[in-house]
Amino acid sequence: MSTILFHKIVFGPIKSRRLGNSLGINLLPDNGKICSFDCVYCECGWNKDGRADSTIPAKEAVFARMQERFAQLHDEGTPVDTITFSGNGEPTLHPDFPEIIDFTLQMRDRYFPSAAVSVLSNASMTGRREIREALMKVTNPILKIDSGLEEYIRLVDNPVGHYSLKETVENLRHFNGNFILQTMFLKGNIGGRRIDLTCDESVVPWREIVLSLRPREVMMYTIDRETPAQGLEKVTVEEMEAIAAPLKAAGITVQVRG
């Protein structure tokens, strides 16, 4: 299996199918992975395979590299649509995440004032007030719930340590709808069990969560790259559009990506 790791603190810009010309920020190891989930579809591979490097960059190194790279791109005239925190795992695990967000907003305003700031997060840290408040400052807090059934989340996302879908939903209520909900749809055999995230058992309670939280947008997507787990299957755009239809009818903006 090929994995995609980001070997720099600041990488790109790269063309994102969801976010446009995206300048990436990796707050995790250059040659390893640290995450509170261990998703079967993660392009960075399994957590256990990313332990060779567990060094999280100090905030001073992050600040210095951002200052250098932002100034360089600005001087070159390189367009940046979005400054995106993603990288090799869960960005909100960085101990100085709130301070880094504040610095990023200052750098954005100085060098790319029209750019959005986005954070791709599995929402596992939203129970911490300081993390929620930092996420609320960015343009696009993109937060994950992959199923309305916690049993399926445990199979597909493999949360590390404590996880509660009910608690996650309650944490997201603090955003008052000002966030983007991201959901992966796939099918396949996981741990000897057939899983289908398009089935009613998963989708019906997921829709109820969406209608309850009313995020400003829902991003529905499916597998786009090789996955660490074998036997996973893409879902068609037509299947996702059918799932999205009742949400769109209820006035919720939904973006479907095949």
Task: Tell me what the structure shows.
With 258 residues, the chain is α/β, with parallel strands linked by helices. 33% of the residues lie in helices and 21% in strands. The chain is built from seven helices and eleven strands. It has helices spanning 59-76, 97-111, 129-137, 150-156, 165-173, 200-213, 237-249, and strands at 10-16, 20-25, 82-85, 116-121, 140-144, 180-185, 187-190, 193-196, 217-222, 232-233, 254-257. An eight-stranded mixed β-sheet has the order 1-2-3-4-5-6-9-11. Helix 2 (97-111) packs parallel to helix 3. The chain is globular. The chain starts with 9 loop residues before the first strand and ends with a strand. The model has no long low-confidence stretch (mean pLDDT 93).
Give the H and E element order.
EEHEHEHEHHEEEHEEHE
Class of secondary structure makeup = alpha/beta
Major sheet size, sense and barrel closure: 8 strands, mixed
- The overall pLDDT, averaged over residues, is 93
Uncertain segments of ≥5 residues (pLDDT<50)?
none
Write the layout of secondary structure elements.
Blueprint: E1 10-16, E2 20-25, H1 59-76, E3 82-85, H2 97-111, E4 116-121, H3 129-137, E5 140-144, H4 150-156, H5 165-173, E6 180-185, E7 187-190, E8 193-196, H6 200-213, E9 217-222, E10 232-233, H7 237-249, E11 254-257
Parallel strand pairs: 2-3, 3-4, 4-5, 5-6, 6-9, 9-11
Antiparallel strand pairs: 1-2, 7-8, 7-10
Helix pairs in contact: 1-2, 2-3
Give a quick rundown of the structure.
This protein is 33% helix and 21% strand.
Task: Give me some keywords for this one.
258 residues, alpha/beta, eight-stranded mixed sheet, three-stranded antiparallel sheet
